[in-house]
Design goal:
CATH architecture of the largest domain: 3-Layer(aba) Sandwich
Number of helices: 8
Helix content: 10-25%
CATH superfamily of the largest domain: Alpha/Beta hydrolase fold, catalytic domain
Shape: globular
Number of domains: 2
Order of helices and strands: HEEEEEEEEEEEEEEHHEHEHEHEHEH
CATH class of the largest domain: Alpha Beta
Strand content: 25-35%
Strand order of the largest sheet: 12-13-15-14-16-17-18-19
Largest sheet: 8 strands, mixed
Length: about 375
């Protein structure tokens, strides 16, 4: 999955003036919402530019690398006081981005901001305010709970971790049972991604408060993907994770939570490599899930679904900067073959969390409608 692009840091005054003049950057920068308490940098402006300021008086070079939406790695300039500062070459895509610093050849996180697990490490994060951020905003509405669970796994001889979102009314309506969405992260991430980077719980809380969805549980666990090096995805074997998910995690969740424990009330979705896992497992185990969703994670074809029990929904999405035609064409073909298929394209985003936040927001109202 990983996202590669850049943040740049301000130059010296003269170079900064030249850069800003060339790009007509509006000087209304404010601290990123993901900054550590009391930290002024990184900052973002109303156009989507990012600006950072790092003190590294003993360093010879500092380079900043970000997720998709930046302009590639950029070497920063040091001032007389030992600060490396700068502004991205262009505006970044709306939403969340990972980034890190390269200081004299070593990889470091920015001490000014919070860390998020991505690229198989805890990386710095920055949020570029989105025009549609209201759907995942923290609001004065009833909130569900996200809790950590540890479940036994005989196949791996370990206790494994998952995070479970339960809707706001779960503790009050103790007789009600709920459908379940099993939601997977991408390569380089882990089971914290959908809550921390994706705001899945806030998306659900807001949709439930607006009466737009039927409440359901979300289960997020590690997809056992990060042992595979980037560029070797074709070597991934689904069997170990399929065993953990289908034979160990699902029975545990059905035993310890009030679920409607049948195929008709169970969905699987994933972003990027989590979509690839979703694709493989739903085809291998068509009697486990009734709703399939690939978020920047490939497509289904009628041929591979043939002779299997028909899902209630197939949802396929991506960003407009990815392969939107492939997604739309796949859904058209699926519809022609008699499947209930839906496509969604996130405008002006690429392989990044704003695409997947929006995708979950579109997917959730389509699940468990019966």
């Amino acid at each position: 999955m990983k996202l590669k692009s850049t943040i740049v840091f301000s130059l010296t005054l003269l170079a900064s003036q030249i850069c800003l003049g060339q790009n007509n950057v509006v000087e209304d920068f404010k601290p990123s919402t993901l900054n550590q308490p009391g930290q002024e940098y990184p900052q973002v402006n109303s156009q989507g530019y990012a600006r950072f300021k790092i003190k590294a008086p003993l360093a010879d070079s500092v380079r900043v690398s970000l997720g998709l939406g930046g302009r590639g790695g950029t070497l920063l300039t040091r001032d007389a006081d030992g600060f490396f500062t700068g502004t991205t070459e262009g505006p970044m895509d709306e939403g969340f981005h990972y980034y890190h610093l390269t200081v004299d050849g070593g990889t470091f996180n920015d001490p000014g901001t919070l860390n998020f697990y991505g690229s198989t490490r805890w990386e710095s994060g920055i949020e570029i305010p989105a025009h549609d951020q209201d759907f995942y905003a923290l609001k004065d509405v009833p909130h569900g709970h996200v809790q950590q669970i540890l479940f036994p796994s005989k196949s791996t001889n370990t206790s494994r971790r998952a995070f479970v979102y339960t809707p706001p009314a779960y503790e009050k309506n103790t007789s009600e049972k709920y459908p379940v969405l099993y939601l997977q992260h991408g390569w380089g991430e882990d089971e914290t991604a959908w809550s921390n980077q994706g705001h899945a719980n806030l998306i659900m809380d807001n949709l439930i408060a607006e009466g737009k969805i039927k409440p359901f549980i979300i289960v997020m666990t590690y997809g056992m993907t990060n042992e595979l090096k980037w560029g070797h995805m074709n070597e991934f074997k689904i069997d170990p994770f399929q065993t953990v998910l289908v034979d160990e995690l699902i029975p545990y969740v059905d035993t310890h939570f009030r679920t409607i424990a049948d195929k008709g009330h169970r969905a699987m979705a994933g972003l990027s490599m989590g979509g690839m896992e979703t694709h493989m497992i739903t085809l291998n185990k068509p009697d486990v899930f009734s709703y399939y969703a690939l978020l920047s994670g490939g497509i289904y074809t009628p041929d591979e679904l043939k002779d299997k029990s028909k899902p209630k929904l197939i949802f396929i999405s991506c960003g407009s900067k990815e392969r939107p035609d492939a997604v739309k064409n796949a859904v058209t073909t699926l519809k022609g073959a008699g499947y209930n298929a839906v496509s969604y394209i996130s405008e002006n985003t690429a392989h990044e969390f704003q695409t997947w936040r929006r995708s979950l927001h579109e997917l959730a109202p389509l699940l468990f409608k019966d």
